[in-house]
Write a structure and sequence with these properties.
Heat Shock Protein 90, alpha+beta, five-stranded mixed beta sheet, four-stranded antiparallel beta sheet, 56% helix, rod-shaped, Pdz3 Domain
């Protein structure tokens, strides 16, 4: 994987202060870094948008319009749909044959007069006809009285009117609000710091705001439409759509591996799109609609291919997120095109899918761009938006395909389409939840086992805290890459709008780890191998994991401290009470044998109390004590000691290890003296890679091990070796004597319990 897979410049690390002091070590609020723009520009844009919309509303109400509503019948003829004049109510549904006045005559007007935009007219002749009819009708109504001639032979005189501001349609105000929200979202993306992907998102959202604003103006216009608006509308729509899909192509390669042709390819694509927009705006390109549709489809296809290549070469969650919406758009665009060129029969009972398709497309895009910032903050919103987008696209695709192939959609077919969408919606919800947005569910037992292993490793080896936490987080989130950073935080922080997650790794053993171990952080890049973004739920889970490890280590420390205090109390009680009584009994012993027995008992009690009260000690010091003790015991009975000890590092022994090994050595030496009557005892101790080997040999006359009676001494040795998690084996030597070999793996004090 390339080393610049996730560059720090795109992670907004400035949000986290490097090497903070204790006063400023607090992490930022758990929000997506970069999505906190200043409110002043947003408020300024909101005020400016309000002024613009009020100005547009004043312009709309100042435009003259006919006080009627036009419609279309099954034969695609222009009919009178409704009228304010009571005299015309009886003629609703009649075809309009002529519109005339003193300024001119418009004969055989067609349904093009119902349109307020030429964007979705497929033929150049239709666009020219729409321009000519609206221009001619504008001249007709300028003279004052307008006469409508209907197919039933009746005629009616009308006077062009102007609306009041309160009479503008709700569709205008609703679209105006949506366009304003889109513009605010676009500005917020531009003001947000860090990821380069924000610029593409800003252009996408701004272009959609322009398209919705044009829809709003069209919804507020009546009949006729000023020719200046028709010209401006076509130029702006073509420019906005081509810029929008060019931004998708630009965003598709943002996180792609650096190749020589990537920059030149994107520059060439923008040059081609700009040239196409210029030619379309000048209206000099024949078959302009087909050029627009083909250009958009080509850009979507190239964007999808780029995203596919990018994910293979350099996986990134943002590229994965874009591909989830680029693929449906690439598949839906041909259906919209097919619906526009097919001869759909629009009846009173059938859906006018040809007219609805672009509106549904625009509504879906607006909802997506408005929901995208919330999708980054909430996994639930992302899942629901994805689900409803899939449902809307599925329903629209089915209806478009049906109407394009069959010409109309009966009510029964509509119900079947709805049922199919609902069935597929359940499948889509499951797929989106398990493969797109959410992490694969982690079994509680697996997470508990992994957490337990990490806690044991951190507790036994404090210097391995980062390694243990790194392995645990990798198994939980499956990131593309994990990178350690020198950042001190109190909680996890999401960076790069979900592309990365910064998790604190506190110093869990400040007193034991030494000055070399400092608080640091782990940066996780690309959850689930770059297929999904990190969410606040992920940050919360990471904080819970770190918190549980901290609590477990602190609890273990508290328990160990309690054990030490209890051992100290027991040691003092045994020394002051039992030791004093034994000492008194020794002085009052009736026989020398009894005095000697009590003296040995006092030595065992001294060893026991020393083990209880002493803390951890190094192996070198323990070996010195053992050698001295064994030498004194053997010298008292004229037995020679041959001592050998070696180790690769001076391992620390805890109380349990020290006490158990001391008693084992004493028991084995006592057996060599009392039962084997040995004259030489060899003790060999070796430590290598935390594996301790203790071997005790004698030259006595001991019996074969398989013939031994298992008394308290041997049982005590086996019990203590088992307590240490080791193994013990007795063998007979060929020359003479018995050999006992013990192997133990040394660990941390908390790994064993005092018994």
């Amino acid at each position: 994987m390339p080393p610049d897979h996730f560059s720090q410049s795109s992670l907004d690390l400035a949000a986290v202060a490097p090497n903070p002091s204790p006063d400023n070590a607090e992490a930022p609020t758990r929000t997506l870094a970069g999505w906190s723009p200043s409110l002043r520009p947003l408020l300024l844009l909101l005020v400016l948008a309000g002024i613009v919309w009020i100005g547009l509303a004043q312009w709309l109400v100042s435009q003259p319009r006919l006080p009627i509503r036009l419609g279309a019948n099954a034969q695609h003829e222009l009919v009178l749909q409704s009228a304010h004049d009571a005299a015309l109510q009886a003629h609703v549904g009649k075809r309009i044959t002529v519109i005339r006045s003193e300024a001119g005559v418009l004969e055989a007007p067609d349904t093009l007069l119902m349109r307020h935009s030429t964007r979705w007219l497929t033929r150049d002749a239709q666009r020219s006809s729409l321009f000519d009819q609206h221009k001619q009708l504008m001249q007709i109504i300028s003279s004052g009285t307008v006469t409508l001639e209907l197919s039933d032979g009746h005629s009616a005189d009308l006077v062009a009117t102007r609306l009041k501001l309160a009479e503008l349609t709700p569709g205008f105000w609703l679209r105006a609000i949506v366009a304003t929200l889109l513009a605010l979202t676009a500005l917020a993306w531009l003001l947000a710091t860090a990821p380069q992907i924000h610029k593409s998102l800003a252009f996408l959202t701004l272009c959609q705001a322009v398209l919705v604003a044009l829809d709003a103006v069209g919804a507020g216009l009546g009949t006729p439409v000023p020719s200046q608006f028709l010209t401006l509308d076509l130029a702006l729509r073509n420019m906005a759509e081509l810029t929008m899909f060019g931004s998708i192509l630009q965003a598709s390669g943002v996180h792609m591996a650096r190749v020589t042709w990537s920059g030149q390819g994107r520059a060439l694509a923008w040059l081609a799109l700009g040239l196409l927009a210029l030619l379309l705006g000048l209206r000099v390109l024949p078959q302009a609609w087909w050029w627009t549709q083909s250009g958009v489809q080509l850009v979507l296809t190239v964007a999808m291919w780029t995203q596919y290549r990018s994910q293979r070469q350099r996986p990134h969650p943002w590229t994965s997120l874009f591909s989830h919406f680029t693929l449906p758009a690439m598949l839906l665009w041909p259906l919209i095109t097919l619906a526009q060129i097919s001869g759909i029969n629009v009846t009173n009972d059938a859906l006018a899918m040809r007219e609805m398709a672009p509106q549904l497309w625009s509504a879906a895009l607006s909802a997506l761009f408005l929901a995208l910032p919330f999708m980054l903050h909430s996994q639930r919103v992302a899942r629901e938006v994805g689900l409803w987008s899939a449902l809307a696209l599925g329903s629209l695709s089915g209806a478009l395909l049906w109407t394009a192939l069959r010409g109309s959609m009966p009510l029964s077919a509509l119900w079947l389409d709805l049922l199919a969408v609902l069935v597929l919606g359940g499948v889509a919800r499951w797929w989106l939840s398990h493969h797109v947005f959410e992490r694969p569910p982690v079994r509680e037992s697996q997470l508990f086992d992994a957490l337990y292993r990490a806690i044991r490793l951190v507790d036994s080896q404090p210097q391995q805290a980062q390694t243990a936490l790194r392995a645990l987080l990798s198994s939980t989130f499956s990131p593309l890459r994990v990178e350690p950073l020198e950042r001190q935080l109190s909680s996890s922080v999401i960076l790069a709008d979900g592309a990365s997650l910064l998790i604190p790794v506190p110093n869990l053993h400040p007193s034991d780890a030494g000055p070399g171990v400092q608080s640091t952080s782990l940066m996780l890049h690309g959850s689930q191998s770059g297929r999904r973004l990190f969410t606040p739920e992920d940050a919360h889970l990471a904080d819970l994991i770190v918190e549980q490890i901290q609590r477990a280590v602190l609890f273990e420390k508290a328990v160990e401290q309690g054990r030490n205090e209890e051992r100290m109390r027991l040691a003092h009680d045994l020394h002051d009470d039992i030791g004093a009584r034994l000492l008194t009994l020794m002085y009052k012993a009736p026989t020398p044998e009894m005095e000697d027995y009590i003296r040995h008992t006092l030595k065992d009690l001294k060893t026991l109390t020393r083990g209880l009260s002493a803390g951890n000690r190094n192996l070198s010091g323990a070996c010195a004590e053992w050698k001295t003790d064994m030498a004194q015991r053997l010298a008292a009975v004229d037995c020679d000691l041959q001592w050998t000890a070696s180790w690769d590092q001076d391992q620390e022994l805890n109380v349990v290890h020290w006490s158990a090994l001391t008693r084992i050595l004493r028991e084995l030496v006592s057996n060599a003296i009392a039962h084997a009557h040995a004259s030489i005892v060899r003790i060999e101790l070796n430590l290598e890679l935390e594996q301790l080997m203790l071997r005790v040999q004698d030259n006595g006359n001991g019996k074969l091990p398989e013939l031994w009676a298992h008394g308290l001494g041997l049982s005590g040795v086996r019990k203590r070796v088992k307590q240490l998690g080791g193994s013990v084996q007795w063998t007979s030597l060929q020359e003479a004597g018995i050999q006992c070999e013990i192997r133990v793996t040394l660990g941390k004090p908390s790994d064993l319990r005092w018994s």
